[in-house]
Amino acid sequence: MNLDWSIVWQSRWLLLEGAGVTILLTALTMLIAVPGGIVLALMRGSRFKPVALFATGFVELFRNVPLLLLVYWAFYVMPVLTGLGLSPFATGLVALCLNVSAYNSETFRSGINSIRKGQTEAGLALGMSKGEVFRQIILPQAWRRVLPILASTWVSLFKDTSLVSVIAVGELAHTAMQIRSQSFRVLEMLTAMAAIYWLMGYPQAKIVDWIHRKYGVRE
Amino acid sequence: MTAFARKNADKPPMLIYDKVRKNYGDFTALDGVSMHVNSGEVVCLIGPSGSGKSTLLRCTNALETIDDGEIRFEGKPLPKSDTETRKVRQRMGMVFQSFELFPHKTALENVAIGLTTVRKMDADEAHKRAMALLAKVGLADKTANYPANLSGGQQQRVAIARALAMEPHVMLFDEPTSALDPETVGEVLNVMRNLADEGMTMIVVTHEMSFARRVANWVVVFERGQLLEQGPPQQIFEAPTTERTREFLSHLGWNG
Fold first, then answer.
1. Which helix (H) or strand (E) element contains residue A102?
2. What residues of B are in contact with residue A144 (Cβ under 8 Å)?
3. CATH number for the domain including B93?
4. How far is B125 from chain A (nearest CA, A)?
């Protein structure tokens, strides 16, 4: 077999840029989907039935549709439905946010529900409003409990961003595939791509392990 | 019932319960309870588990809503709106059986949080006040500790300081020593007794009969959501007027 690894080195700046887009996409998704998850979790707990129902519908829909399908849907159907012409990057971001917000909502919901009712009562008994109780007492405690799960979600998301390559978002997978199809260096590029994902993903997984050890629930 | 002079009987009562009813589904937790608490009194609520004592306490600061009857605090019925309820709660301190300190905050922060969040007091001033209150409950050296690093008795004393920070007019104690190791019960009861000596109005749900006997001005016996008997501790503990009170007390090993 005739292997030519020089193509990887030659494409290093393109690959680096792709890796940068992958990280940017992951970070932006989390930046939106964490508050999004909190809001959805609160909406699901709302006493106002239509609000709770809407949030439940949202979560159950976007959690149970394959992410790849969601990406295609956002690309082909969303513009027709909404009249919005988003860039592939923004479209990919929307798809990821819909999916991850739904997941995060469940994470926060279980975290919030795991805090004893007495904590809320202790805050209310001091004369705090429900909002103050949530922000000062419940959320900080729930946050510590869900942090390990959010970290795991981050690592999954980091890898799942490769799915938006199907709509030509210039992240790592798409960039590598492009170079492959232009250079016909299939084995080299796929291997390089795997190596880069692993090199970036492994330290993140280690950090997650550390977060699990540091913040895991001990009672 | 024999007429005993109650403390501050010449002034309007601080709390009046008028035929208070509370149901949980089919279960009647409070079945038309009427009683009152005068300012400066220590009223102990005793009775078997599930008799409604804690429910009455939780209805007092509106953690539970009542289904019928009325609770009047300082001359006014408990308000309906959230904003007004919050104002009333600031005048009532509550101490829970399971402490319910905020585990992510130090002892000092636990005591100060009501002042900074609800009173919008600046942090330095709030911490100064919190420091003084922790000293008052004998924990001046534990201000930086998190609840997890405090004994049960210490946690409950922090919880008392936290409630006192809001300068309440009445303190509600919901079985404050029931979750404690026997060796730390005394330190909490001492703090409560000091509060009583200072003239704090207190309603105490308790199984500590010797505390009720020595510190209470008035004792109310509950059974199955009803008020079985009430009177000064001498009467309740030495000459109870009902057979059920006698049975309950002897069940607890109380023999006068």
1. helix A88-113
2. 104
3. 3.40.50.300
4. 18
Tokens 């009647």 correspond to B28
For residue B23, being part of any structural domain is answered with no
Helix (H) or strand (E) holding B57: helix B53-60
DSSP state, residue B45: E
| Structural domain harbouring B85 | 37-102+169-251
Neighbours of B186 (CB within 10 A): 13
Nearest CB to B63 within list A116, A125, A128? A125
Is B9 a domain residue?
no
Q: Which residues make beta-bridge pairs with B72?
A: B16, B77
- CB contact, 8 Å: B6 with chain A? no
The yes/no answer to whether this complex scores an ipTM above 0.85 is yes
Distance CA A66, CA A62 (A): 8
Of A207, A197, A169, whose CA–CA distance to A71 is shortest? A169
**Gap from B44 CA to chain A (nearest CA, Å):** 20
pLDDT in tens, A161-184: 999 999 989 899 999 999 999 988
Write out the CATH class of domain A6-215: mainly alpha
Residue B84 lies in a domain: yes
As for how many domains chain B has, the answer is: 1
Report the distance separating Cα B235 and Cα B238, nearest Å: 5
**Are the beta carbons of A172 and A158 closer than 8 angstroms?**
no
Mutate to test the interface with A, among B60, B82, B86 (most CBs of A within 10 A): B86
Closest CA to B19 of B226, B222, B223: B226
Look up residue B159 and give its amino acid: A
Closest CA to B113 of B121, B141, B157: B121
**Residues B35-54: tens digit of each pLDDT:** 999 999 999 999 998 899 99
CB neighbour list of residue A19: distance below 8 Å, 6 or more residues apart: A172, A196, A200
Determine the Cα–Cα distance for residues B202 and B217; give it in Å rounded to an integer: 10
Contact B97, B174 (CB under 8 A): yes
Q: Confidence class of residue A219 from pLDDT cuts 50, 70 and 90? A: very low
In a domain? residue B19: no
The residue extents of the domains of chain A are: 6-215
